[in-house]
């Protein structure tokens, strides 16, 4: 099964434009999107950027001090079909 994947290695202008567009209602056709995850603070910066309260340059100055985590986001049933259950583990507290 072939899926359409968009992968961002780092927080770049392309990454910012993509998440800003999605935040503004853009619907993409990727099955899977992978890359840096914006935490709540970075999302606030994205919103400020979208609202025109800060420039792209200011966004990057603020964001460079944050350490994004990595995420894989599945957007279609086709992407979900790629998952395979391997096991379950019960952890006693």
From TrEMBL:
Pfam families: DUF3990. InterPro entries: DUF3990 (IPR025051). This is DUF3990 domain-containing protein. The lineage of its organism: Bacteria, Bacillati, Bacillota, Clostridia, Eubacteriales.
